[in-house]
Amino acid sequence: MTTSDSPSADGALAWAYAHCEGLVRDGDRDRYFATLFAPADKRPHLFAIYAFSHEIARVREVVSDPMPGEVRLQWWRDALGQGPLGGTAAHPVAAALMATIARYRLPVQAFRDLVDARVFDLYDDPMPSLGDLEGYCGETSSALMRLASLVLADGADSGPADAAGHAGVAYAITGLLRAFPWHAARGQLYVPMDVLARSGVTRDDVVSGRGGPGLAAALGEMRLAARGHYEQAAALLPALPMAVRAALLPLALVPAYLARMERRDYDPFRMVVDLPQWRKQWILWRAARRFA
Fold it and tell me: Mind telling me which InterPro entries this protein's record contains (predicted)?
């Protein structure tokens, strides 16, 4: 009997998957509830992918400066090169992720690219352009949707990659706009410099909390970009195999989030945009019915 076939190994892996589910439930509610509409046998593997993304995304929040963050990200690069029987057994997210990668023959390079993209989060460098932001969102959020699609397709063809591409960018830009108050307060800027420049806003206007009359226009341009990607993704959904559409379910929340940002009382420096949990679940339920 090999180590991977032993009862103790099976129990440890089951615990690792359960740990991933708990992380996603507590830290990524949108994807947690969207995953409940996926087939039950695929959910642990989706939770493993999302837990990995959650761990990478929160590195800046748990380190005091960029260097320890770089070390944490390098650990993940090394772990991704070790395979399911490497030195990752002691880390439940890594153990579950590597087992999922092996089971569905997922492309490891996509996970490495996601880690590399998150290096940007460790520093306060401004996002240069809207194109750079779309690339960042593509390597993080879009890649996540594409990988989830591969799991739902049992590692086979999951349909046009552009669907996950546009869906991920729409969802990620919307998420960055929702988190604008947090980012601005800690001197981090995801609204691209070219978007700010077109509206006569500087980086200092944002990180100081001054804002200025042009900020509303800059944020409006960002919402317009998110809506454009949302519409392109929605147009591509019918081309996706039925089995993989649950991977794109978080996309359904984008219009409601954007609408909250367009209310007259919206203050980008003080309002973290969210929806009541019942409404999120209702939107996802309706979308799951439409997708099916």
Answer: Isoprenoid_synthase_dom_sf, Squ/phyt_synthse
Residue type, 104: Y
Instruction: Name the nearest CA neighbour of 139 among 159, 120, 158, 160.
Output: 120
CA distance 230 to 160: 15
pLDDT value of position 88: 59
Please count the CA atoms within 13 angstroms of the CA of 132 that sit on its side-chain side: 14
pLDDT tens-digit series, residues 101-114: 999 999 999 999 99
Instruction: Please spell the DSSP secondary structure of 165-216, one letter per residue.
Output: HHHHHHHHHHHHHHTHHHHHHTT---S-HHHHHHTT--HHHHHTT---TTHH
**pLDDT tens digit string along 131-157?**
999 999 999 999 999 999 999 999 877
How many residues belong to the chain?
Answer: 292
CATH architecture of the domain with range 124-292:
Orthogonal Bundle (1.10)
Which residue matches tokens 């153990």?
95
Question: In the structure encoding, which two tokens stand for residue 290, read together?
Answer: 């439409």
Domain boundaries, the chain: 1-122, 124-292
